[in-house]
Known about the structure:
Residues 42-203 form the Glycosyltransferase 2-like domain. By secondary structure, the chain is an alpha/beta fold. The protein has two domains: 2-25 and 273-360; 31-262, Spore Coat Polysaccharide Biosynthesis Protein SpsA, Chain A, CATH 3.90.550.10. Helices cover 51% and strands 14% of the residues. It contains twelve helices and twelve strands. The strands form three sheets. The chain has a seven-stranded mixed beta sheet with strand order 3-2-1-4-8-6-9, with helices on both faces. Strands 5-10-7 form a three-stranded mixed beta sheet. The protein is globular, with a radius of gyration of 21 Å.
Amino acid sequence: MSGILFFYVILFWYVFYTLKNYLVLKQENNKHDSFIKPEMVSVIVPFRNEAHHLPELIKSLQNQTHLNFEVLLIDDDSTDHTYKSIAKTLELDSRFKYYQLLNGKGKKAALEFGVSRSNSSIIVTTDADCTAHDSWLYELTVPFENEKIQLVGATVGMKYSNWFEKLQALEFSSLIASSIAAAQNNKPIMLNAANMAFRKQLFTKVNSKMKALPSPSGDDIFLLQYCLKYYPGGFYFLNSKGSYVETQPEPTFAHFINQRRRWASKSKYYVDNEIRLVSLLVFFTNVFVVYGFVQLLLGKYFLAWLFPILLKGVVDYLLLKKYLRTIEQVDLLNYFVILEILHPFYIIFVAISSQFGRFSWKKRTYPI
């Protein structure tokens, strides 16, 4: 019986947190002023072996309504024919600059190199497998009219066609929806480097601290945490259609798990207490949901276990539905029940396994 009581405490805490996020997301209060000054923007794209994706990203960048920008393409020791795929663009469009890093430097080094070569005080980052809305740069630059703003995050969606990609897109949407709502609740927990902008002065101030962390990535979450530490109120999260970018799903289940283990491996280096607390809340909620599933199968206190599990499902559904309406992907909710059942098992496995062993990224192997 004590197990049920503990389960209720954790789960109702999660329900309260998620419901609060849903209510703030429902208010649709993410508005900003019109852009006044045509600020110069430096777009940095660190990449490795992205010959098939880069041309599409470049095309979306050339279609931007905000014209005052440069693009720094930082090739992190690619082994494919990436340069050939973009050579014509480099020849015809002087806004695009190509740099190659040799000897396996990694994404952090690529980003640092790009920032050092940039000609703007505002840096925008995205990934090579992304495509952006035509007003993307305009939207991301607007918040910097407020001199207090140091870091801007924005919405990232996932392209999909088959059932596996739809499950990935739905799971990813749950992360983005929570990130938007938490930020609007003045308690930001996450952003994604695929759609991020920051002042060069912020990066310069905290880069040495980020470099000291053993994680091969984390330029987004760690930048957020140091921004919250040194510039309270300096973070802004955009939730507008024009600031939206789309990224590619993982091709196989093994790639998907490997990616999530890489993401979760950064949790041991978190420095923000709010982010740590939310991470623990999500983990233990899913532990007790799995425990509750087991008890349901055993037939013990059936209704006592069923009710909170269903309640969790309801608040998860409300939050997702609100967000998916914004990005016009409500069809993904057809897979909600499947994801809600599988998600707790996946979360527990990824959270635990990410703290041990190794993961691969861009054909490189890293210790966790």
